[in-house]
C-alpha cells in the first residue's frame, strides 16, 4: 500500500468520540518522510488517543487517516507499514522478550530473523530469555521499541518512549530517532520531555483540548520566546 510520494502520516479533520465525549475535534496534521514530529500537550489533551486512532485501535467518527498514503486497515501486514509502540505494559508478563517478539513476527508475517536483529538494536539480547514480569520500565520501553522496529516500517508512532529510560537509554533513543529519520522514515512521538524535543525534533504539534493549537518547525515555534517551554505555555494559554 506504500505510495512513495505520500507522507508517512496524513490526518485530515479527524474527530474521535470516546464515551459521550469528543476527545479529538477536527485534527489535521501531516508527518512527512524523514521527519521527527513531536506531539505535545497537557495530560488528557488527546495525544495517546490520536496515536491510537492512527494505529486503528480507536475508531474515528469523521475525517480520514492515511499511513504511507493508504488505509492501514486494508494492509495485509500492517506492522510493515506502521511501527507502533503505544504503552510499556502492552505485553503478556509471563512471556519472555524473545517470545513476545516471535509471536508478533508470526502474527504479522515477518521473518523470524528480524527478532534477534531488533533485540540487538535495542540492547536486550542478554535479557531476551527472561520473563517480561522481571523487566524494569526502561527494559519494557526497549522491548516496545523493538516491536515497533520489527516490521522495518517506513512510518513509526511512539507514545512517551523515553519514560523510565536512563541517560544512556535516552541518548540511544535520540540517536535511533535521528537514524530512522535519516533513512527517510516518518516518526511521530508523543512526549512531555521538552529537552529531547528541542534536541531531536524537527517539528512540534501541540494538541490542547482535543484540537491542534500549534504546528511548526521547532525553530519557528521557539521564535519570539525564551525557550521551548515558554513557547509551549503560550500555545496552551498558560503563559504568565
Ligand atoms: N476509553 C476511554 N473512554 C472515555 N474517555 C477516554 C478513554 N480513553 C481516554 N479517554 C479520555 O480522553 C482524553 C484524552 O486522553 P489521552 O490519553 O489521549 O490524553 P493524553 O494527551 O495522551 O494524556 P497524557 O499526557 O496524560 O498521556 C482524556 O480526557 C481521557 O480521560
TrEMBL record:
The keyword Transcription does not apply. Residues 9-234 form the ABC transporter domain. The keyword Transport applies. Pfam families: ABC_tran. PROSITE patterns: ABC_TRANSPORTER_1, ABC_TRANSPORTER_2. GO terms for molecular function: ATP binding; ATP hydrolysis activity. Keywords: ATP-binding, Nucleotide-binding, Transport. Belongs to the ABC transporter superfamily. This is Putative ABC transporter ATP-binding protein.
Amino acid at each position: 500500500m506504500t505510495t512513495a510520494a505520500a507522507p508517512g502520516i496524513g490526518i485530515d479533520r479527524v474527530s474521535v468520540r470516546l464515551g459521550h465525549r469528543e476527545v479529538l475535534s477536527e485534527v489535521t496534521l501531516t508527518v512527512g518522510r524523514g521527519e521527527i514530529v513531536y506531539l505535545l500537550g497537557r495530560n488528557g489533551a488527546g495525544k495517546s488517543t490520536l496515536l491510537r486512532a492512527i494505529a486503528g485501535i480507536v475508531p474515528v467518527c469523521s475525517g480520514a487517516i492515511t499511513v504511507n498514503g493508504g488505509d492501514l486497515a486494508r494492509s495485509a501486514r500492517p506492522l510493515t507499514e506502521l511501527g507502533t509502540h503505544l504503552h510499556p505494559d502492552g505485553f503478556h508478563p509471563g512471556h519472555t522478550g524473545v517470545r513476545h517478539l516471535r509471536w508478533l513476527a508470526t502474527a504479522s508475517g515477518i521473518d523470524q530473523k528480524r527478532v534477534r536483529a531488533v533485540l540487538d538494536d535495542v540492547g536486550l539480547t542478554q535479557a531476551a530469555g527472561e520473563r517480561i514480569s522481571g523487566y524494569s520500565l526502561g527494559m519494557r520501553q526497549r522491548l516496545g521499541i523493538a516491536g515497533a522496529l520489527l516490521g522495518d516500517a517506513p512510518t513509526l508512532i511512539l507514545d512517551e518512549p523515553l519514560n523510565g529510560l536512563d541517560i544512556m537509554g535516552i541518548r540511544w533513543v535520540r540517536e535511533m530517532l535521528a537514524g530512522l529519520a535519516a533513512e527517510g522514515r516518518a516518526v511521530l512521538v508523543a512526549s512531555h520531555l521538552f529537552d529531547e524535543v528541542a534536541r531531536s525534533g524537527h517539528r512540534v504539534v501541540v494538541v490542547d483540548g482535543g484540537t491542534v493549537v500549534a504546528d511548526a518547525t521547532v525553530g519557528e515555534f521557539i521564535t519570539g520566546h525564551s525557550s521551548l517551554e515558554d513557547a509551549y505555555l503560550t500555545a496552551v494559554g498558560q503563559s504568565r
